[in-house]
Amino acid sequence: MFYALADLPQPGIAAVDGYVLAGGFELVLNRDFIIAANKATFGLPELTRGIMPGGGGSRLRPKRVGIHIAKECLCTGRLVSAEEADKADLLNRRSYF
């Protein structure tokens, strides 16, 4: 499913409102545009259990935010707020409502 989304010829938009964790976050990372509400929270909590992301999260995240920020998040499994995700350039746009 992740490869099918990545291979779509038309641009994909992820609209995020709330928690986006594990496979849901990996689906979002496969989209071309990410728009998030202020209360959105992103992360790969499976990392805190010693489980590697199965949908490409460790491969896709550095492409969106840069290698150093991606390494920190992948090594700690820390959740990221919409504000922090926006500052790291993960988001294309943040809604302020």
Q: Structural class, from helix and strand content?
A: alpha/beta
What is the total domain count? Answer: 1
* CATH topological fold name: 2-enoyl-CoA Hydratase, Chain A, domain 1
Task: Indicate the proportion of strand residues.
Answer: 15-25%
| Sheet with the most strands, sense and barrel status | 3 strands, parallel
> What is the chain-wise order of helices and strands?
HEEHEEHHEHE
Cα Rg: 12 Å
CATH architecture: Alpha-Beta Complex
What is the highest CATH level, the class? Alpha Beta
Poorly predicted spans? none
How far the N terminus sits from the C terminus, by CA atoms, comes to: 32 Å
> Quick one: overall form?
globular
Mean pLDDT: 91
Q: How many runs of DSSP E, i.e. beta strands?
A: 6
The fourth-level CATH homologous superfamily is 2-enoyl-CoA Hydratase, Chain A, domain 1
Which percent bin holds the helix content? 25-40%
Identify the strand order in the major beta sheet.
1-3-6
**Total of DSSP H or I helical runs spanning 4+ residues:** 5
Outline the structure in words:
The structure is a single chain. The chain is α/β, with parallel strands linked by helices and 97 residues long. The protein has one domain: Alpha-Beta Complex (2-enoyl-CoA Hydratase, Chain A, domain 1). Helix content is 38%, strand content 21%. The protein contains five helices and six strands, in the order H-E-E-H-E-E-H-H-E-H-E. The strands form two sheets. It has a three-stranded parallel beta sheet. It has a three-stranded mixed beta sheet with strand order 2-4-5. The chain is globular, with a radius of gyration of 12 Å. The chain starts with a helix and ends with a strand. The mean pLDDT is 91.
